[in-house]
TrEMBL record:
Residues 50-99 are annotated as: Disordered. The gene is glyr1. It holds the Pfam family NAD_binding_2. This is Cytokine-like nuclear factor N-PAC. It comes from Sinocyclocheilus anshuiensis. Residues 50-70 have a biased composition (Basic and acidic residues). GO terms for cellular component: chromatin. Residues 136-292 form the 6-phosphogluconate dehydrogenase NADP-binding domain. Residues 299-419 form the 3-hydroxyisobutyrate dehydrogenase-like NAD-binding domain. It comes from the Eukaryota. InterPro entries: 6-PGluconate_DH-like_C_sf, 6PGD_dom2, 6PGDH_NADP-bd, HIBADH-like_NADP-bd, HIBADH-related_NP60_sf, NAD(P)-bd_dom_sf. The lineage of its organism: Eukaryota, Metazoa, Chordata, Craniata, Vertebrata. GO terms for biological process: transcription elongation-coupled chromatin remodeling.
Length: 421
């Protein structure tokens, strides 16, 4: 039976009571363990299974015909400490880092594009823990995404002060150990690094420039991190006003959903002040599975995120269109989904969104109104550089129709209803 070691996938010795069957617990363990080494271990196991299956088929042709489609399940090799290189694909004289004390270590990957990725250290792969920064953290905006982020910051030991336009949303986090700020200005004045995550460009501007706003609390050295998905022009404006007061500015919009936010599995895309990005490393590890720093001016992360969300929104609309066309032509929608999830487009996103549609469950994981906003901003960005975006424009019209059908506050998968009304 193939098993997981619950404590450390590279240990020399494994207690029997710490073993779990591989296949039933695979997704659970991947969700809990975010480190690159753990993913390498999973990849190695999957490669082993493929080779084992190939050998079984080669040596047992007759049996392969009768057991077609069934995966081979051979015992997983328990990697000894000296065998760590089996996961690296090379050799090294250095001690296995998984055997070092559990301390905070960053892995920074420089890419040819000039972007940087900071991923969870190996200690995270072992037990999911990180060493929180000693800086005081502020957080403004406790919506679908912000709530999960703050929860994970608190779980990982950060000192967090929160504010939300609807004050009642702060109560749960106060119970979990957060401090309460009465205004955005007060939060910024109390904290070293303040994050914000709100719905759109107007909300982002109002939060900074409005009465008792962020700008009133900015002093030299204070850090402000804008996590909202907005247009590059808004980011440029906010960066200018923050730095004009001696503040330090970083944009760090996130790719994901409410569930991924709750699970601490967001992808963060950042640009602006590189030193602020590095100061936020423990925060980004708490809230996400990886983060990227985009070289160049502030606004580049907004551009990248709008492109990503443009693709995601257009894809979602296409899936909804396929499901309704299947129904209209007398085909089973469930069979369509089953086939889709066995092909090259298979993903958790496809499966979850299609299941939402088939079950008629449109509880928001990512608001439909927000993906439509992102499409609108991406189209506008394309216009600003004379680049056509006909696919996004077509998808945008479908989402606008869904909004007219009162689907704004439902999940983005509710775009399906634009095709059936």
């Amino acid at each position: 039976m193939l098993t997981f070691d619950m404590l450390c996938p590279f240990s020399a010795w494994i207690k029997v009571e710490q073993l779990k069957p591989y296949h039933p617990h695979k997704e659970e363990m991947i969700k809990i363990n975010k480190g690159k080494r753990f993913q390498q271990a999973v990849d190695a196991v999957e490669e082993y299974l493929k080779k084992a299956k190939g050998k079984d088929q080669t040596h047992s042709d007759d049996k392969s015909k009768s057991d077609k489609g069934r995966k081979a399940a051979k015992p997983m090799k328990i990697i000894e400490e000296d065998d760590e290189d089996a996961f690296k694909g090379g050799s090294s004289d250095k001690p296995a880092s998984s055997m070092e004390p559990i301390t905070k270590r960053l892995k920074i990957i420089e890419e040819d594009t000039g972007s940087t990725s900071i991923q969870a250290a190996d200690s995270t792969a072992i037990n999911g823990s990180i060493t929180p920064t000693d800086k005081r953290i502020g957080f403004l905006g406790l919506g679908l995404m912000g709530s999960g982020v703050v929860s994970n910051l608190l779980k990982m030991g950060h000192v967090v002060t929160v504010w939300n336009r609807t004050a009642e949303k702060c109560d749960l986090f106060i119970q979990e150990g957060a401090r309460l700020g009465r205004t955005p200005a007060e939060v910024v004045s109390m904290c070293d690094i303040t994050f914000s995550c709100v719905s759109d460009p107007k909300a982002a501007r109002d939060l900074v420039l409005g009465p008792s706003g962020v700008l009133q609390g900015i002093r030299p050295g204070k850090c402000y991190v804008e996590m909202s998905t907005v247009d590059p022009e808004t980011i440029t404006e906010l960066a200018q006003v923050i730095t004009s007061r001696g503040g330090r500015f970083l944009e760090a919009p996130v790719s994901g959903s409410q569930q991924l936010s709750n699970d601490g599995m967001l992808v963060i895309v950042a640009a602006g002040d590189r030193s602020v990005y590095e100061d936020c490393s423990s925060c980004f590890q708490a809230m996400g599975k990886t983060s990227f720093f985009i070289a160049g001016e502030a606004g580049n992360a907004a551009r990248m995120m709008l492109i990503l969300n443009m693709v995601q929104g257009s894809f979602m609309a296409t899936i909804a269109e396929g499901l309704t066309l299947a129904q209209a032509t007398g085909q089973s929608q469930q069979t369509f989904l089953d086939i889709l999830c066995q092909g090259q487009m298979a993903s958790t996103f496809v499966d979850q969104k299609c299941q939402n549609i088939l079950q008629g469950n449109f509880k928001p994981d990512y608001y439909l109104k927000h993906i439509q906003k992102d499409l609108r901003l991406a189209i506008s960005m394309g216009d600003s550089v004379n680049h056509p975006t006909p696919m996004a424009a077509a998808a945008n019209e479908v989402y606008k129709r869904a909004k007219a059908l009162d689907q704004s506050d439902n999940d983005m998968s509710a775009v399906y209803r634009a095709y059936i009304h």
